[in-house]
UniProtKB/TrEMBL annotation, chains A, B, C:
Keyword terms: Isomerase
InterPro entries recorded: Metal_Hydrolase, Uronate_isomerase
Name of the protein: Uronate isomerase
Uppermost EC category: isomerase
Organism: Rubrivirga litoralis
Protein biosynthesis keyword on record: no
GO MF annotation, one: glucuronate isomerase activity
Name of the encoding gene: uxaC
Family, similarity comment: Belongs to the metallo-dependent hydrolases superfamily. Uronate isomerase family.
EC number of the protein: 5.3.1.12
Pfam family, one: UxaC
């Protein structure tokens, strides 16, 4: 007989009664809040076009590297899963066979967040009531396929069913943003806010882009000049030197902001920052245009551009996000056959204290500077949100930095660490030095649209777990814990990313009184 | 209505009943023990002069970088808090306004040790019964101000009320020690010990200095030659070369010891140790005297001086403390305006295994050496107490080193890690390899005199928490757990720092039998 | 009165009732399973000769660096413990005095795994019922000595009493393997398997060797040429260049495999891997033969040889084990007097992501390669089992690598981390990314034969603890948790090391149904 698939109402809470009761009370406060998703990788075409989803394997397995990397580690070839190859071809496998492979390896996911998210999706979204296995694979496949054919499973219907308030995508700086332009012209993307006031703020849009210029900074890679050329075309002027390059970036940032963008996103292997002297900067850029940039040129130029992007953010108010510490495409032969984003990006030890000093020291101090003129202009202060894959930096570097610099906010537990123990470690290692209010709440960071509510639910439960522990240890009163829970789930991501809509009423019912001071 | 401020009797204990009951039993054993504070930064003038404390903000906010760094991170300028600037000036703000800013940001401290310490101080010391907030700020301010005016709040009265047995301050090697000289002439500083025996040991003093020579080692910094000149004056001889420098340091160590010092303290960015060959050492010192020392000179000379100080400790018996791993004054513009110790010291990754090898290999082996002559002299064995800000070194480097070398003892969780989760991580990562008896008990390390009992209470509660867990998991019997708890709270710091007074009777009442072997 | 020594049936389980009940249920599943010990350091002479054990100190104290390093850290000289010196001499101390020293320092082991193992051995093996102390030392000594004299305490009787199915020793590549040859000729070493089928597989032996060639790779050390000469003699051909060296290694691997070896073991300070170009490789080897290899030569050659050994493993199917990150013989003066393995090996920070990339990328990808020819040959796929002393690499590097590469399996928590908290951290940091099925189960890694059942019992209890937590948090159903527990205790080590005997029936009674897919 097949094992039942159920979602226990106390899942992910601490088993101790005092802790669990407090965790429940905090979760009651946050479970019904809208989803704010200020950082992720959903394809904007999905919501711009609103086409039905394909069958189960194409929806849940093939595009999700969390899923197929685990199957690969257990000896399942990517070709057997129909994962697209670098040359655009694809092994000829039936989706149902892919689904069967996944179900037969369900045991391999025991104890992982993928298991937790998938259980949520199968049960909550598709009403599956048996655990995947070789025996149940076909039954589940058919059930999901049937649902996907119904209009209630169209992307926009799900978007609203999920309770998503804002969803940010991630878009190359040289993207034409055609889907965001389509969304901009679509009434669906600008709903009347709950309080009736059409405030026109960025937060009033449902789907917004995020400016990601990494490919333009990687001056030693093969495709760089193509990206630069495309940037020039989109920004309306040929790029002949560093100055025209920087000017084009500024114009493109304005294009993104006009479509609702509130943030930029930057990925790099290290957190190194620092201005290049002008002459050197120009020489490096010239070498890059000539196709002769070296790896060290790229590293130095990346450090320089992080300073330049910080300066642009200080000017245009886009929040700057920095994700560092992954060595991409570790498995070279597989990269040659299948290309990037195949689960083979592996973290490395990361240094922030020295690396970020130039940037933070110049831009993130925020107060007590000789910057009266700038402040007088009424611009929002500079803000950097930093993410790490090296957990040893939480307590050692990032929490001390965020607990000091007004212009630095900690992004949530990222990627491999977006899990029960991973999120608990994040709170345990950052809260005592940085508090809760120097963190940015949760990011789902996902390409898998259907996993968004599963991921936010897990995060809210784990934050409730942590807060429940503080209450049961008498470190925090329950009413303050509920307050903090609400901030983590809703108020802080909105504040961190400047999505300034008025807060909706609490889903739980009773209005929740807060002093304005808390999240000013 | 304002939230109540209460201290739950089970605060910081594990919520599970079996663990909590055992934790309570351990804490019952330790709660009433005298406070031994062998490492801290209280100004000795406070107790030498015994003047009344000023008003609340000056006592609790302005001098405490734990407090004002968090406010700064939330956008409050240091000038708005009246923090003194580097040039000696100070923004003209009313103390009551400073206090209001602190209370309005009380939420930012949720989950931090500063919150825990402050709750203890407000409630236990000043009988405050409402939580700070914008609404309650004035009421609390007035209540504390009123208490401070009373003779019961004079420093020496509080010292005794806190149950402090020994308090070590930290004093520059080139300090004239005028306050410690005054204390030395003051009967208050040499109380009759509980058992009536005036034993004349270092531990018989209440307030003692600690020898900190860092400024004399930083040969590439601007003020170095001033410190050297002052050292020469105090030690009675001009410093013209390395030999006269070393001789002066030895004389000054003797001066400190004569005033009760039992230890030295050394801070450095890294743990690098190693002798310079004589010729190189002399050349570096000559360059320093000529104002031409480089950064690498300073690093190499620091490594050399740690060896030299270890050799001096092996001779004069002063316990050597080493604190490494903080990058000082990370925020350069703020450092220029406000100077050092403004909450902008940020940890960096630290290496101990290779760095300490020369020092430990030469001085800390302690047994099985060809050192019969030295041992025969009856001198106490060399002892180094090491502190880290990089928790990844606890289980990887420091516990394995301390669980091997007889001359190495682990200092407690330090600075950012002096917190509930931080202290639990410390015990979880060090105990299984080094045991409890290779650790030094607790240090409060504080400048904030009124926080001393709060910090020791928290540490005793967290150690009781950890021990309660071991009991509930059947890893340790309750009577042995109580024994260990008492060692951590009282016996081990006294042993580690050689404060050899006879142990007082247990505050809890019944005498507590121990074999002498345990702490010999 | 002496404290009682008892073993609580719930020891090491979580105290919370829901967690503990689930932990008990998992442990019920695993407690009676046979012991698979695929990596350790027991002397094969012990079982080849089956002589009685000597007295208690020689059995439990003198050869166990876990025990004597802690005593040494508390100031007990190694000579006082009768530890053999490098020159073969030994201080003249009575074994009973050694035992007394150990018992008098019993408190120093509070909270350590050595305490837990020793309690198990004393109580389960020797029926000791009082805790060691100065008072009870003699009584316990006599009791153990009496038992050791009985035939029921001979090594082979204990081997069977412990329920050991397979025990791998670790043997130098240049060992003559005389004890393993004796065992090979001994019926005791090839029992009839439980199901009656004498399958002739490696797993059908009780005691097997492991190929450890480290001494042959350390080309800059004094004794290297002796090892090489010995290798040549054993492999039947003089070693004159790299090619004859590599050929001799291959022949010796075949010798080990013929005696049942299933694995090789490699220790290095770092995880650096990478081929040397042929000319450079030959030049380095020639320099080594000439006695002129440098430290950098050795490091580069070690990196090269790890590639070469991986290639050999891909050919002959021996599982490759890699242990890195210990700085050996930290205390130089003690090393000169007492030699290696005296508790002074100290971990260092370790990097895997970049260091292992050449090896994993070439050998561990396993699928989706242009290796149809090789796969067609029916050889088992390459497998590396990696161990670390740097826990910061669990979640950051090793779990992401093992959760991706089919040819990489994670070894268990190693050495200093083979402890309650250490094993919990291992599961907490690896499971969410790599799952359970990319780990190798438990290794006892011990020289102390009598500690084998203690160590396996502790590991099974801690895995039950972790699984009980997942059940109580509703992350895993109880029946799946029991399944996983069984895999960790028995199936996974057998799979990881290719010990392919049919699984015995569950000791607990009821047969335990599993799909074959899980551990195919």
């Amino acid at each position: 007989m097949a094992d039942a698939l159920r979602l226990h109402p106390d899942r992910f809470f601490p088993p101790d009664r005092a802790e669990r009761d407090a965790a429940r009370a905090v979760y009651d406060e946050t479970a019904g809040l809208p989803i704010v998703s200020p950082h992720g990788h959903v394809d904007p075409a999905l919501l711009a076009e609103d086409r039905p989803f394909p069958e189960p394997a194409e929806l849940l397995i093939t595009p999700d590297h969390y899923v197929f990397r685990m199957l690969h580690s257990q000896g399942v070839p990517l070709d057997a899963l129909g994962v697209p190859r670098a040359d655009g071809s694809r092994a000829d496998v039936a989706p149902r066979e892919v689904w069967r492979l996944f179900c037969a390896h369900w045991h391999a996911f025991a104890g992982t967040p993928t298991r937790a998210w998938m259980e949520y999706e199968l049960h909550e979204l598709f009403s599956v009531e048996v655990a995947p296995s070789a025996d149940t694979a076909d039954r589940i496949y058919d059930q999901i396929a049937e649902r996907l054919a119904s209009p209630e499973y169209r992307p926009r219907v799900l978007f609203e069913r999920f309770g998503i308030e804002t969803l940010a995508t991630t878009d190359a700086a040289s993207s034409a943003l055609e889907h965001h332009r389509a969304l901009d012209a679509d009434d669906w993307n600008r709903p009347t806010p709950p309080n009736g006031a059409a405030d026109g703020s960025a937060g009033a849009r449902r789907v917004i882009p995020t400016f990601r210029p990494d490919a333009l900074v990687q001056i030693a890679r093969a495709g760089w000049s193509d990206h630069v050329q495309r940037l020039g075309e989109l920004a309306g002027g040929a790029i002949e030197d560093y100055d025209s390059f920087a000017a084009a970036l500024r114009r493109r940032r304005a294009d993104f902001a006009a479509l609702g963008a509130v943030a930029t996103d930057h990925g790099a292997e290290t957190a190194r920052t620092g201005w290049l002297p002008e002459a050197e900067r120009d020489a490096v850029f010239a070498r890059a245009l000539g196709g002769a940039a070296t790896a060290e040129d790229e590293a130095a130029f990346t450090a320089h551009m992080l300073m330049a992007f910080a300066e642009m953010s200080a000017d245009d108010g886009l929040v700057m996000q920095l994700h560092v510490g992954a060595l991409r495409n570790h498995d070279r032969p597989l990269f040659e056959r299948f290309g990037a984003d195949k689960g083979a990006d592996i973290p490395v030890a990361t240094e922030f204290t020295r690396a970020l000093r130039p940037l933070l020291s110049e831009f993130a101090g925020g107060t007590d500077r000789d910057t009266a003129a700038a402040d007088g202009a009424g611009r929002p202060p500079f803000r950097l949100i930093a993410f790490t894959l090296d957990e040893s930096t939480y307590a050692r570097e990032l929490a001390p930095l965020a607990g000091y610099y007004p212009g630095l906010v900690l992004g949530p537990a990222w990627w491999f660490h977006d899990s029960v123990e991973g999120m608990l470690r994040y709170r345990e290692r950052t809260t005592e030095t940085a508090g809760f209010y120097n963190t940015a709440g949760f990011n789902d960071d996902t390409r898998a649209f259907c996993s968004i509510p599963a991921r936010h639910d897990l995060a809210r439960r784990v934050d409730a777990h942590y807060l429940g522990r503080l209450v049961a240890r008498h470190q925090l009163g329950l009413s303050e814990a509920r307050e903090v829970g609400r901030a983590l789930a809703y108020d802080l991501p909105r504040r961190a990313y400047r999505l300034d809509r008025p807060a909706p009423a609490t889903a739980g019912g009773a209005a929740h009184a807060r002093t304005d001071g808390v999240l000013a």
